[in-house]
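Tutorial handout. Part one gives the primary structure; part two gives the three-dimensional structure as tokens.
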Amino acid sequence: MTAAGPELHTLPIAARPRRTWAQAAHGLLFLVVFLFGCLMINGSQFVVLLPLRLLPFRAARKLYYEGVRYSKGAFGALLVLSCQWFAPTKLVLSFETEGQGKFTFEEIEKLVKRDRDGRVLALDLPQKAVLIANHQIYADWWYDWALTYFMGTHKDVFIVLKKSLKWVPVVGWGMQFYNFIFLARSWASDRLHLSESLSWLARRAQREASPLTFILYPEGTLVSPNTRPISKKYADKLGIPDMTHTLLPRSTGLHYSLRSLAPRISNLQLLDLTVAYPGIPTLEYGQGYYTLRSIFYDRVPPPAVHMHIRKFDVNRDVPIGNISSSNPDVLPNGSANGAVEVDIPENEREVFELWLRDLWRQKDKLIGRFLETGSLDAPTESGKPVEVQVPIQLRHNYEILDAFCFFLPAIVGWAWSKLR
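Part two.
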């Protein structure tokens, strides 16, 4: 397989040379490997995990829970392996050191774990967190999940999806095992379902002492020629300027999510990612340069994925409102009138919306800086570097087998023998 020319990613997809036979063969191999991995993971879920779900024993439920985590981690490893084999790139991480959500230099030095050769093995970022980011291309979620691999939370990622994806063969079935949250895009019915689902996940994560990473894109959709006018119209309605490089965020889903999680996870953190990709000119759209097909099929990935990270303690630093009357042991549901998770006073809504909008203004400025300098990192008085380069690669060769869920039957069999 030959690498693409170094500047090919700077050309719009429509202006690139015609696809070669080598690229077509590369794309076919990627599809075979990726779909085989998905089939192995989903097949293991049905053959090994589903019978455990049906057994009325506490030990079986515990094995089922751990098996689902393993299979989700297998999918996370498959995403990393797909980058490693078919679309090599790296994460370039920088950390806020001055404004809201800042890290100290001591924190940055401690959170990066390296081997003797200086290779990054892990990132000591919060284990229970809501991860929010701007949304430019469909591959955003792929790279965000790759980040959680280095955080050690890739087995415990949760996302929100359209309800129509729930029954897509293999992929949709697998996502149901993963306890992903499916919404009908009708807020009247979705708000209670979202709050109840997140409250249940938070309570379980606390009970099992397991991580939780909930990924959410407050813009709700990609920046594109179709969504830019909608953002402008929304800004005009509010009487405020529109964003330049992002869309105006919608605060409702994030607000409900934080109010549902925070009462049940006292140390819940909010990780705010500003993501930027090289090669996309000012005021152009990311999907014109990077699609899942162009990245993995044509082997033209971004040479780097830049992420600038802020960290907030939700209960201390984020104005989610007064949730002191929430009962962590009770889940919000259709009969729970007056649940503070979903009944948000108007003044608290406005305060949170303004806070999130201000965060997005800062994000918009960061992307402007990236377009000018090629870096999301701001110069600091000390001159200490805060960028960390993390190649998207598996840490160990044996994890290749993990990516295809080969170890799940052996692990469950061994654990069952110990519990008998």
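Part three, for discussion. The beta strands are 90-95, 112-114, 120-123, 128-133, 157-162, 181-183, 212-216, 269-276, 305-313, 388-391. The longest strand covers residues 305-313.
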